[in-house]
Amino acid sequence: MRPRLPLFLTAVALCFSAWVAGASPRQVSLSELFPTQAQAKTAIVINKVLERYHYRKVTFDDAFARAVLDNYLEALDPNRSFFLARDVERFEGGARRLNDNLRRGELDSAFDIFRVYRMRVDERVAYALKLVGGKFDFTANESYAFDRSKAPWAKTDAELDEIWRQRVKNDFLSLRIAGKGDDDIRERLRQRYDSLARRIQQFTGEDVFQTFMSAYTETLEPHTSYMSPATSENFDISMKLSLEGIGAVLRSDNEYTVIQRTIPGGPARDSGQVSAGDRIIGVAQGLDGKVEDVVGWRLQDVVDKIRGPKGSVVRLQLLAQTGAHEGGAREVSLVRNEIKLEDQAAKESIIKDLPNAPGLKIGVIELPVFYRDFDAETKGKRDFKSTTRDVRQLLTKLVGQGVDGVVIDLRGNGGGSLAEATSLTGLFIDTGPVVQVKDTFGKVEVERDTDPGVAYSGPLAVLVDRDSASASEIFAGAIQDYGRGLVIGEPTFGKGTVQTLVDLNRYVPGDQTDLGRLRLTMAEFFRVSGGSTQLKGVEPDVHFPAADDSGDHGERSLHNPLPWARIDAADYHRAQIPDAAALTRASVRRIGQDPGFQMLERRNQVLREIKEEKRISLREADRRTEDKHRRTLFEDEKDRFLRARGITPVKEDSDQVDEDALDAQRNAIARIQVEEAARVLADGIQAEGATRPKAAMRN
Q1: Do residues 533 and 496 lie in contact, with contact meaning Cβ atoms separated by under 8 Å?
Q2: Where in the sequence numbering do the catalytic residues fall?
Q3: How many secondary structure helices (H) and strands (E) does the chain include?
Q4: Global pTM?
Q5: Which of 148, 448, 546, 641 could form a disulfide with 595 if both were Cys (CB 3.0 to 4.6 A apart)?
Q6: Rounded Cα distance, 622 and 611, in Å
Q7: What count of other Cβ atoms lies within 10 Å of the Cβ of residue 63?
Q8: What per-residue string of b and e applies to 257-275 under the rule 16 or more CB within 10 Å gives b?
Q9: Strands 405-409 and 362-366, sheet pairing
Q10: What confidence tens digit (pLDDT) does each residue in 400-428 have?
Q11: Is 399 exposed, middle or buried (0-12, 13-18, 19+ CB in 10 A)?
Q12: For all residues of the chain together, what is the average pLDDT?
C-alpha cells in the first residue's frame, strides 16, 4: 500500500470539520450526505485552476476519471476490507461519466460511493463485534493477509466475513502477545471497532467533499490537494503556531499512524524516545488520562487527538518499527511546547584521532533545518537569526581550531528557506547560479549567489540521508555540481517540486460563498547542471550501504509523482573532486569491519523483512517465536556495537532508565555515519596532499 501524504503536527486547539470550535461530534444522517451548490461551484473552479496552472499538463479523459475513482476508493477503503466487488463494478460504471460530471460540478456519484461505504462499515463493525465475544483457536495453522491493498475485492459477504474473522483474530492475538488478559482484550477491541463506526458516522458532507476532491487532485501528483473552508481556517492557525506542538510529521500506513520524522527542537525529538518509523497505537491526554486505541483511525483523527495547547501533556503508546507486534509497545509522555529557532540552530563539533588519518582533525556542522527568522527580518532587525549567519560563525570557529576539513551534516534535514539554501551555498562558492526554477508556463528563473568570495575554501563534504529533502537537496546538489565538495551517504528524498496556496474565491469575485483553497504544484527545481532534484534526489559520490531500500522511501514511494526531468544547464564552472571510486572502495572496506554499520545493516534487514511481509501467522507460538527472533536479531547487534565503544547497553523500555546512559547510547549510534564521513573526507585530503584549509572571510 502506498503511504499517504504526511501532516505536520501543531498545537492547534481547533479540529477538523465537526470538531471545529469545540463542537460536540454528532452522528450525521445519510439524508444529509448529498452535494451542495457551493460544492458544485467549487469543483468547477478547481477544474479550471488545475487545467490552467498545474505544473503537470494532464488530459482530463476517461483514463484520468478512472484514476480518480481508484484514488477515492483507496482513500476510503485502502485495505479492501469493506467494499464488495459488486459495489466496485457499479462504481466503475459511473466512472465513465465522472469526468464530464466533474466539469459540470456534478458530485452525486462521489456521495453515493460514500453512503455505500458507510453502510458497509456499519455491517463489518457489527460482524466484528459479534466475533469479539467468541473463542479463537490460536494453535491452528493459519495466517492473515494484513496487507490487502493489491488483493482482489471480496466477491461475496461470506468471503468478506472470513477476511474479518482473521482480522479480529489477529487483533486479539496481537493484544494477547502484548500481555493483555482476554477480558481486557475484548473490551479494547469493542471500543476499537465501535470507534471506527462512530467516526465514519460523524463524517459531514464537507468531509466527504474534501476526501473526494483530495483524491481527485492527488491523481495529478501527490502534493496537490484541496482544503475546504474549515480546513483552510485550521491551516491558517497552524501556520501562525507552526513552531508549537510535539514536533512530528505523521503518515498513514495500513491501519497504523506512523512517525515519518521528528522536528529538531521539538518535544518528540528532544525526548529521545520517539523515532522515525514508530507506530502510534494509542493516545492519552494528561498524566492520567485514559489511553484511546487509535489503530485503524484515519490520519486526521489521530492528529486531532495529539493536538493541544502549549504546556499540556500528551501520552503516546508507540510500537517500534522493528517490533512486529503490540507486545513491544512503550508509552512516552510529551509536553506540547514551542519549537524555538535556537533549538534548530546549527551546531559544531570536531572529530579527531581518525585511525586512517592520524593527526588530522575534521570539523562537523550539524544542520537540522534551513531556518530564517522572517518575522525579525520583516521588523528590520539586522541581526535576525539565519542558517547562513550561524554557519559562517561556526566555520570561523572551526578554522580557528585548526580543522583540516569540514563535514556539513544534513541527515534528517527536511528543508526550509530557499533563500538560506542559496546563501549558504555562497559560503563555499564564488558568485554563480545555485538552483533553477521552472514554472507552469515553462519560464526558468535562476536563484544566484551574488556575494563575491567564499567564507571557507578548504576540503568539504556534505553528509545526507534519505530524509534530506528540498532545500537540503538544493544545497547538496549545488556543492556536487560545482565539484566544491563530496556528497556522502544515501540518495536523498527526491522532492523537487514547489507548491503554492491558491484562494479559490478569487476566481468568483463578488460571490460570498467560501470555496476554500488549493495547494497547487506550480514549479520544479533544477540543479545548475540541468537535472531535477525531483524523484531521483541527489545521488552521493560515496554511498553508504544503509541505502539499500531507499527506493521504498521519499518521493519514490509516493503514488504518481512527477518524473525526473532535465533542462539546459546554467552557466557555471565545475572544479575537480577527489576520485570518488577510490574513496568508495576504502570506505566499503572499513564499513565491512565496522560494528556500527553491521548493526545498521542488521536493522535494515529486519525492516526489509517487515516491509516484504504480507501475511502473518495466527498461531500464537509462531508469532511469539518470530517476534523474539526479530528483536534479538537487532538488539544483539546493537549491544555488540555499544560494548565495542565501551558503552554499557541500556534497554529503552525498562521501568528505570539511566537517562544519561541512554543519551550516550543514542549519541554513539547517531555518530556512526558522521564518523565514517569524516574518515572519507580525510582519505580525500590525504589523496590530494591537501594542507590545512585557510578561510577567506568576506568583508
Answers
A1: yes
A2: 470, 481, 495
A3: 18, 22
A4: 0.85
A5: 641
A6: 19
A7: 11
A8: bbbbbbbbbbbbbbbbbbb
A9: parallel
A10: 999 999 999 999 998 888 999 999 999 99
A11: buried
A12: 86
